[in-house]
């Protein structure tokens, strides 16, 4: 059992138990793969990948990162909209079942597992099943988008706080605390908000955030096809039209610092647009 | 010029210019060092460290991380309270001056440069001086604290958003949007909030957040001396007493998932306390 050549870590555990023919219980590590650029993996994440028997990943994790674990079996449970996806409960049970086979299971997630990664649900499922489960944090997309654009999430005098929300809603439109999000002096980052950008902008504006507030859209943050659009809250919906990759909406005064071309940056930036939509208000 | 043996990167730039005796202009990279564990550096941050001529760092960056760049000169501009610190304007000017000497300058910051790291101010100073400045994101402390404790920042049904604020105030008490922070169904993370924990808890409670809301304090997240205290909002002030290291206050229902001992974790956790303070309300 647990004897196929690629089950390196499981084999090691069995060996450590004194060579007895017992099956060592596997374990699950929820690993943040970061925003996409393989160089934005942490060293700890890289080590976890290299020690894994099986990678359970979604469509947001790039091929370059998967290739860092050539020894591991790969299971794609892609969660991108309009593609076939495995329901969360099935993913939870898959992780438990793989660990029970004695495998070192890495559940690889774009960004960070605990920030819109549904890692909490997977951790709970492992705990309930008595499976050892640890978490390796990752650089969440907002940090990479902010760094790449040169637009800080917090900034003296204009952003004393930052709030992360998701624009994705299971049914219809996101139910967020618009009054809180509309307050000044903070940056609001919306994950998965492209398809609801118009609704979000309308609600924020109705709740009092000025239509002239700078808004930065970053698609495919840190990837070779990264694309940035600097606009305003009033122009957000128009600017978000046609975006296909995963994108962040970032709203707040500090986003005005975003540069069309950050000094020193060369080929990694495919397209950058700056929209002045003050006339659109 | 720019000829001392440790100025490796600057020498390389001069060499690339064809060996002419011109001084290449240096540049500044703002690098997130992550929460403390050297394994939570990104690969990109490690590369930046290895290519640096000089590291400008503060007291939150650990010796193990500084040792990853043995070739670099080190300048400590420690910003911890009650120690001698360089004012931010002086740090800005230092970075510009070092870059003008033709050096590869790495400004190394705990966590992420753009989330309570004042990186925006340093970037602005470089831009104004015409110095090339790029940013490498890092794992911010909250992500590491959350991962280590097994308590997700967002969680289905209990935390649909997360807000990061700072408890530090230049004069007196932090001026935060208590009404917004007191709303349910979100996690509130307070950086640098130990000394104002009592004030913060009182204001959140007064604004309507239940005193029974779970609250997790994580001191020295990801370091060998990490310490976690699971309490409630009502018990926050008492629990924060006596903490000396950098610590996060994390308030929200999902924090109840924090484990005293995460499965698989051994020596990295020095002390863990769980306080049931419901009687203290």
From TrEMBL, chains A, B:
The keyword Membrane does not apply. It holds the Pfam family TP_methylase. GO terms for molecular function: uroporphyrin-III C-methyltransferase activity. SUPFAM superfamilies: Tetrapyrrole methylase. PROSITE patterns: SUMT_1 (PS00839). InterPro entries: 4pyrrol_Mease, 4pyrrol_Methylase_sf, 4pyrrole_Mease_sub1, 4pyrrole_Mease_sub2, CobA/CysG_C, Siro_Cobalamin_biosynth, Uropor_MeTrfase_CS. Residues 27-236 form the Tetrapyrrole methylase domain. Pathway: Porphyrin-containing compound metabolism; siroheme biosynthesis; precorrin-2 from uroporphyrinogen III: step 1/1. NCBIfam families: cobA_cysG_Cterm, PRK06136.1. Belongs to the precorrin methyltransferase family. This is uroporphyrinogen-III C-methyltransferase.
């Amino acid at each position: 059992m647990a004897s196929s050549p690629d089950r390196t870590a499981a084999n090691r555990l069995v060996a450590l138990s004194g060579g007895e023919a017992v099956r060592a219980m596997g374990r699950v590590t929820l690993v943040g793969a970061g925003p996409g650029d393989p160089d934005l993996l942490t060293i700890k994440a890289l080590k976890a990948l290299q020690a894994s028997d099986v990678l359970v990943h979604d469509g947001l994790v790039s091929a370059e990162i998967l290739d860092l674990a050539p020894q591991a079996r790969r299971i794609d449970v892609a969660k991108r909209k309009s593609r076939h996806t495995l329901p969360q409960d099935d993913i939870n049970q898959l992780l438990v079942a793989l660990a029970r086979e004695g495998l070192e299971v890495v559940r690889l997630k774009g960004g960070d597992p605990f920030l819109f990664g549904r890692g909490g649900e997977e951790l709970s499922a492992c705990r309930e099943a008595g499976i050892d489960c640890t978490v390796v944090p990752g650089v969440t997309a907002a940090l990479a988008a902010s760094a790449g654009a040169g637009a800080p999430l917090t900034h003296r005098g204009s952003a004393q706080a930052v709030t992360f929300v998701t624009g994705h809603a299971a049914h219809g439109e996101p139910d967020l605390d618009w009054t809180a999000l509309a307050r000044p002096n903070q940056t609001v980052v919306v994950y998965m908000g492209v398809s609801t950008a118009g609704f979000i902008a309308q609600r924020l504006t109705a709740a009092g955030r000025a239509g002239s507030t700078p808004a930065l859209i970053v698609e495919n943050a840190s990837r070779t096809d990264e694309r940035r659009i600097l606009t305003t809250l009033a122009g957000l919906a128009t600017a978000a039209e046609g975006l296909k990759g995963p994108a962040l909406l970032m709203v707040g005064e500090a986003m005005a610092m975003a540069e069309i071309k950050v000094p020193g940056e060369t080929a990694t930036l495919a397209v950058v647009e700056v929209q002045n939509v003050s006339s659109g208000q």
